[in-house]
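Hey everyone, long-time lurker, first post.

I ran two proteins through the pipeline my lab uses and got sequence/structure pairs for each. Pasting them in order. The first:
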Amino acid sequence: MSSRNWLFALVLLVATLLVYQPAWNGRPIWDDEIHITTPELRSSHGLTRIWTDPAAAPQYYPLLHTIFWVEYKLWDGWPLPYHLVTILLHATLALLLFQILRRLNVPVAWLGAAIFALHPVHVESVAWLSEVKNTLSGALAAAATLAYLKYDKDRQLTAYFLAFALFVAGLMTKTAIVTLPIVLLIVFWWKRGKLAWERDFKPLVPFFGVAIVAGIVTVWVEQKFCVEHGETFDFSLVDRLLIAGRLFWFYLGKLFWPTDLTIIYPRWQISESVWWQYLFPIAALALLVGLWIARRKSRGALAAMLCFAAMLFPVLGFFNLSYFMSCPPPGHQFAIFRADHFQYLADTAVITLIACGAGWFWARMQTRHRLLFSIGVVAVLGLLASLTWAQSRNYRDTESCFRDVISKNLNSATAHNNLGNALLRKGSTDEAIAHFEKTLEIEPNYQFGQYNLGAALVQKGDVAAAIPHLKSALATNPNHSKAYYSLATALAQRGQMDQAIEYYNRALKLEPDFPDAHTNLANLLLEKGETEAALAHYRTALALQPDNPGAHYNLAVGLVRKGEVESAIAELRIALQLDPAYPDAEPLLRDLLARKTQP
């Protein structure tokens, strides 16, 4: 690249980093914690499972979760480097887009790259940790495209195999890039006006082959392991055409008018009996027909819209995706269908068209008007950057994220539930309970609503109100270990010790590595005089959390009850080494040492 292009690359990289600064230290939200390598996958055996067990990780993207695995080894749960990696991948994709547009002789290629890097509709893909699969697969797909364009120019096999390897790697990161071979064919048609079997189709046959296999595997895994309990996707073909038409215009609209962006949009109701819903697919078809008729003058607009539609196709409603979040019957025709991260790669096609249009206007513009046009372009980029900066602030933490959702989508049961959990963790129990109650008001059968409300009421001390909710949660899901734990805690507070012990045991049967359940059960057993049984559970809790001062203190209390003073003293000393200010540990240690000195 020339020095001018290197300077542009540096400026774009710095600008991208700065507009995402509010999200640099953003804590995990929603499903991030199950993506950042869960404890059972952190070993070498876990790494093997990532590749061999489709149910090991949230989605079967083995390369993605291998990278998460490596990242966890490098920086544990520190969010900053995770975010910087994602932001840098986004900037890399923008710069690869710049190179691709230059290779295709698109005028004002820099503008296309800048719009892509700074557009606020891409914040969800960049600021949400889980969506690194978008930025990574996108960068790999763009690199594959660049390599394949080189192969198409000089037919060097090295470039061909590099493109194929990058494409396969991208598919193992996220299969949203399956339509890349189709996009390449559209691009070649745009440039040449016609396609030839030997030159254009035949080399892409292996690409189509692996794309089809990856698509089948993803659909199978999505349906078998990812669809949540109670979700239904029984939409007819007509429904799906209505959905696709509406989504086409929704995503196109968000690109040109990016307002009210949110991580959870309000549900749509799809109905074959509502006439105006047919206008969306009809208008989309009319647009494509019109562009087809106009192709003799210019193929660019048609090619861009075909690429846009092709890259969106996997998420236009023709395939069932758990992110659609349908309602259980009788409201199963309501679903979300859309998410900003679904349009991430498809936007490159329309942005390319915008860059082409800007270049066309610039070339035909009188010299005295070009300064004004340039100021307008810079102002638009500045506006996009400011909107991106503001939007990325919503990804600082769970509370910020879901307060933003509720401000734009008041009737999102998921948002109220997730905000309630965040508030409960920070101690705002009453406000959390209000949001859990709102969750159940909106969606009485919400899977986690009854449990979360019951657990919050237990934390508040209102066990009488909590017990019915917890029992309701267990009636829906009798394998909910935490519901048994919370119910046991509520019953213990009411003095129903035998029932509490029974439910703690049920929780541990379902989740043997549940330290709090072991500890609470041990406390009750100790109170009943079953010291040996209590000590066994204290020791198990300590084995699960060896660096927890509370676990050492609890074991010390049990040992004192048994009369093993020396062992209790040793445990208390460890507890104080871990936390010199741990409550009650120092007074108990002084008391035990004083006993030893007494004659």
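...and the second, right after it:
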Amino acid sequence: MEIANKIVSAVKAGILELYGTEVSESMIQLQETRPEFEGQLTVVVFPFLKISRKKPEDTAQDLGTFLKTQIPEVIQDFNVIKGFLNLTIQPSQWIDLLLDIQQQEHFGFVPVTEDSPLVMIEYSSPNTNKPLHLGHVRNNLLGWALANVMQANGNKVVKTNIVNDRGIHICKSMLAWQYYGNGETPESSGKKGDHLIGDYYVAFDQHYREQVKELVEKGMDEETAKQEAPLIKEAHDMLVKWEQNDPEVRSLWKRMNDWVYAGFDETYKALGVGFDKIYYESETYLEGREKVEEGLEKGLFYRREDGSVWADLTPEGLDEKLLLRSDGTSVYMTQDIGTAKLRFQDFPIDKMIYVVGNEQNYHFQVLSILLDKLGFKWGKDLVHFSYGMVELPNGKMKSREGTVVDADDLIATMIADARQMSADKVNKLENITDEEAQEIARVVGLGALKYFILKVDARKNMLFNPEESIDFNGNTGPFIQYTYARIRSILRKAAEQGIEIPEKLSSDITLSNKEISLIQHLQGFALAVRQAGQDYNPSCIANYCYELVKEYNQFYHDFSILREEDNNKKLLRIVLSAAVSQVIKDGMGLLGIEMPERM
């Protein structure tokens, strides 16, 4: 950033001195020089033509001469192509910039201070009636990456989860377990708790369909049959008992939920994600009801004749929204209001980000208005980090039919595939134990999964292709990990040869265009981090890392590092390699991706 700042300040001073007019920094357009022209940075002079009243070429010539005279320590030379002033930067500037990047612990990150704003990010939001699936994987990876990105941009971050642990869907699993479970537990079956409960959710649906079919065959119309089937009526009865705090129902509910939480925790751990605070719908829905009734008293909402409570949002260009049913029970919106109330009590939130699929866009539009009406200072500015559907090549995921793409299966498959794909590479490593090979497979398999999902703009629907994701070539996690491991190997060999990474470098080294380009790419990391934070878009970081790695691989192919005979050049290339490995590790770390030291 230092080089750019010096040039922008000098251009500002030049316009004032040459043409007697002060310009704002926003008028000064500085960009990387196009590859076909000589130079590294280009000033676009067209915005200054009204001030100079000269041709573009003449204005650029004036400005170039001024800059070369004014900041000779920065500008080595210049050339003019129409309205573009191409600047060649002094090699010493690039060397100083490289050392600055390499010596910072986390280049491009903004430190978090006591006064930093607090951002709360909600992600995951599972139901306790089934295990996590591929859609949850995308949600968790996006939430975790976004939390890291916001922190790297100087925010305090609280990672939070809301667990949907109440409702008819939970009662379905409970009832099916009572009828068909024969006392089965995770311990007795060897199944993860969330998988066990998911099986009973599927079992409920199968038996319920059979009941509906029987009723239809006896002459009942399908809609009535769906409401009159004994299983669904019992599930509704169980929900009423739950609401009434029936000790037997509550005890079973707690026992089965605990099985699910233990299962979820295993999956979260395998994915490398976690939370600072978990909220439960069973604890927040009553708070939401209270808040809605408070809004009713204040005239913010109204009650219909059947006793239901509504918000009229037609003045805001939306429709009317149900907040409490006629029997007083809550809807999802009520729960979200209650959760917001508890969170606001627990934390001094400055910004709230909800990581939820794009099918909920309208819900969050409404929630924002309601929270604002109810007096939450961050309500109006809440961010719905909306993301698209994720599919596999063989079609969409469905849950009730039991054909869900299970998160645990996906993780295990990715690790097994990585083990197979990397067998040749890993086996070539000396003194590698089976345990180390398995750990490399875990890091590579999860890296492939995470990178493939996070490199896509979250707003888009995506097709997750496991085979493509684990390729060691192209825009994949393993390609980036392999380059990182290669650099670490170079640095280990340098250390074995007694070469330490120097704190200073000779300032009179002739840098190649490729070395300068690589330093420029490194400098761009700070911009990528800032952009990812401003746009809530972790894919900026993923794609930056890929471009940096491509650039480094070209450099590695074209230049000797440890075999370079000129010692000053050798040291420069070692420092350059160290800085690239550090930035790759930090960038991929923001995405929650581990980097293997060997591969």
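Reply from user beta_strand_b:
Welcome! Quick read of the second one: The domain at 2-89 is CATH 3.30.1360.70 (Gyrase A; domain 2). The CA atoms of residues 18 and 62 lie 8 Å apart.
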